[in-house]
Amino acid sequence: MEYNGGSVVAMIGKDCVAIASDLRLGQQSVGVAMNFDKVFPVNDKLYYGLPGLATDVYTLREQLRFRVNMYRMKEEREITPKTFTHLVSSTLYEKRFGPYFIEPVVAGLPSPTELDPHPKPFISTMDTIGCITTPKDFAVAGTASNKLFGVAEGLWEPDLEPEDLFETISQTLLNAVDRDALSGWGAIVHVITHDKVITRQLRARMD
Amino acid sequence: MTLLAQSPMSLHDTYAAPVEHRFNPYSENGGTILAIAGADFSVIAGDTRQSEGYSIQTRYARKVFQLTDNAVLATNGFAADGKNFVRRLKQSLEWYQHNHHKQMGLKAIARLIQTMLYGRRFFPYYVYNILGGIEEDGSGAVYSFDPVGSYEREACRAAGAAQALVQPFLDNQIYFKNQQPEPGAEPFVPGRLPLSTVLGLVVDSFTSATERHIEVGDGIEIFIVMAKGRSPESLLDEKLGEGMTIEEVPPVGEGGEERTFLLSGPLKRD
Amino acid sequence: MWGQPMSAYDAFNAHASFPLPMRSAPKAQPVSHTQQPVVTGTSVLGLKFKGGVMLAADNLASYGSLARFRDIQRLHPLGSHCVMAVAGDMADFQWLKRDLGSILREEEALSLTDNHPSLSAANIYNYLSIIFYNRRSKGDPVWNTVLVGGWDEAKKESFLGYVDLLGTTYSSPTLATGYGAHIAQPLLREAFEAKAGLDGKGELPTAEEAEKLLDDCMKVLFYRDARSLNKYQIATITAEGVKISDSKSAKTEWGFAEGLRGYGAQDR
Q1: A197 FRET partner, CA 20 to 30 A, in A149, B139, C182, C220?
Q2: Pick from C61, C130, C131, C50: which is nearest to C90 by CA?
């Protein structure tokens, strides 16, 4: 976790979700890259972040890409955020006794179905061996997680519109990573709404 | 006699190797403190929970203390060291008053605290101190210290168990970090927020810390030191939070023009 | 000196408060101590009630896991309106009794001859906490955890305080040490808060309720704490003074144990 550094946060808004990460990749205290995005899309309604050991970020991302593609072909439909969460969880638990050093965060907008015409925005997070939590407000992970908890608890409020959610998640991430030596060096934010995904790179302190 | 010389446990432990057992003179008693300076006031706050490990020792133990008519000290870390440090500090301040027929000024108290902490450089007081009050020029001030006396004047500081949760929030809300004013608007200046805003931030900081940190909770005590000439009406008229009470803290000495108030209220107990 | 002009230094420093008191130079030979507890007493409990405070401690002093001394009194009166209940090393407890005894005798003599006030429970507690803190700072701790209960006649209120080998101090309407802090304290708090409310400002439990509660807690501790004894005493401190009960036992039920594998004869 502390080897490469990095943090991810996700938040629920009104008919939208947001997920954001810093862009630092380090080797202990030495910064190596400032374009290490830790958030990846599954489809245009579902993103996930993988903060933790960088080598495991790649392994897990490819593993999940493979499994989501298999799911798509077998089921002939897109995976829901909830199902994807369980897919990530069982992928992590397969390595129960030699875990990936990753604490994933999932954020998605479930598509309406006949059974559930008005699905709620969904976020979830897991520990390194796949124990799931599905918060109603925000999820944090990575080396700045305690700072993210503090700021998010102070800034977040229910039913934020996409632009307000963007401001809240950006301020939360920036102020938390500015107090963390292992996170920072830029940030990227995705706000997922029903008709589009807003992705913005943030200008941040580079020290 | 040989029997007594052995430790009772080793009588039953066949494989007992001589275990090096050293007495640990320190403990950690949780809790969080915080202070914010305004233009003509200073706010110093702390929660009232005292814990050790996963046990709550008491739901009411004070860790914010009035030192003089214009200085309040918050202390956090090892409670026994904290109590004894404050006791010794108060004694020094009393002697100073007897010798000089006046109370020690805030920045002198800050230097005294550094001297006392550094005096124990090689057996430190395991205590994080935050000193708040009114400077001789009438401005609100906050000084923060590390356990061995390194110190600095600041506009705000959080310390203790939930420091990591509260400090970045204060960076954002007090120092306006990562914020910029609207084009053409006044620039942000830290340390100039109105008292009502500051009190709101203090209460929010502690409710947030209580929500996410197990060692924070039970109660909150907020000391407010007001510079001379500032009307306390603005404070007394404040719409207090639920269950909050306010009282004026009597002056330590003859009483200058500064006034100290204590705002206390409940926090969640779980 | 009277009749003589004050020197400039004395005028500046009438109370010799400068320079700041410093630690004395380290001794040439390092003194080694840091014992560890040998003969020990287990948890003690304390509880405030309407009109006073109660303390409870069992009569056992253990030597490791051996129930070595089974008639030891761990409740010790200090003056007319104060009791301490002591857990931890019994040798240090005896030293404490001796040390406090001499102070108390001196103070009592003074309080008889002039209008010198006698020591309150809060005074004694404060003195104890200073002893404990100074000894821990020397690296030679007094290996005890002590509850002090008392009645302050001037303030007409009860006193209950905790101090341990680190010099850590605190007060609360219910207190418990060691295993008691994990097992009995939740029961004490639940019962106390049910009566007095979360802020403790309501009606306090009566003496009868308090004693019943302590009896229950001592029983639960006897069931679960392997270093406890079903023979204990309760000290009650009120305006009338100190009353330390005779040793008593809780009624216990072990019938359930017969059905447990590993208990009793191993013939099943």
Answers
A1: A149
A2: C61
C-alpha to C-alpha distance for B259 and A152, rounded to whole angstroms = 35
Nearest alpha carbon to residue B75 among B148, B131, B129 = B129
Cα–Cα distance measured from residue B155 to residue C24, given in angstroms and rounded to the nearest whole number: 38
**Structural domains of chain B sorted by starting position, each given as residue range(s) with its CATH number in brackets:** 28-267 (3.60.20.10)
* Tokens encoding B96: 């100073």
Q: What is the model's pLDDT at position B20?
A: 55
Nearest-CB residue to B25 (from C20, C22, C166): C166
| Residue B14: alpha-carbon gap to chain centroid | 49
Two tokens, residue A104 = 């994933």
What is the structure's pLDDT at C259?
81
Tell me the one-letter amino acid at B241: G
Domains with residue ranges and CATH for chain A: 7-202 (3.60.20.10)
Cα R_g (chain B), whole angstroms? 21
The answer to whether the bond into C19 is cis (omega within 30° of 0) is yes
Chains A and C share 3 or more Cβ pairs within 8 Å: no
Please say whether the beta carbons of C174 and C188 come within 8 A.
Answer: yes
Nearest of B151, B146, B148, B157 to residue B202 by alpha carbon: B157
CB A24 within 8 A of CB A185: yes
- Whole-angstrom distance, CA of residue A102 vs CA of residue B168: 24
Single out the residue of A123, A16, A102, A108 nearest to residue A51, CA to CA: A102
Q: What is the mean pLDDT of chain C?
A: 91
Contact across the interface for C181 and B55, Cβ inside 8 Å: yes
Beta pairing partners, B246: B263
Angle at C153 between CA C150 and CA C155, to 5 degrees: 100
B165: contact with A, CB 8 A cutoff: yes
Which candidate, B113, B109, B110, B138, places its Cα nearest to that of B38?
A: B138
Residues of C in contact with B29 (CB under 8 A): 168
DSSP class per residue in A123-175: EEEE-TT--EE--SSEEEEETTHHHHHHHHHHH--SS--HHHHHHHHHHHHHH
Residue B49, number of CB atoms within 10 A of its CB = 27
- What is the total residue count of chain C? 268
Active site residue C168: no
Return the residue matching tokens 């996410």: B212
- Of A113, A131, A129, A111, which is closest to residue A121 (Cα–Cα)? A111
**Residue A126: pLDDT band with limits 50, 70, 90:** very high
Identify from B156, B157, B165, B203 which residue to disrupt to test chain A contact, counting A C-beta atoms within 10 A and taking the largest count.
B165
Instruction: Give tens-digit pLDDT for B186-230.
Output: 999 999 999 999 999 999 999 999 999 999 999 999 999 999 988
Q: Does B168 touch chain A (CB under 8 A)?
A: yes
Q: Which of B243, B216, B225 is nearest to B38 (CA)?
A: B225
Domain ranges of chain C: 39-248
CATH number for the domain running over C39-248 = 3.60.20.10
ipTM score of complex? 0.95
DSSP C25: P
Amino acid at residue number C171: S
Tokens of B156: 């705000």
Residue type at C53?
V
- Taking the CA atoms of C151, C152, C153 and C155 in sequence, report the sign of the dihedral they define: negative
Entry pTM: 0.91
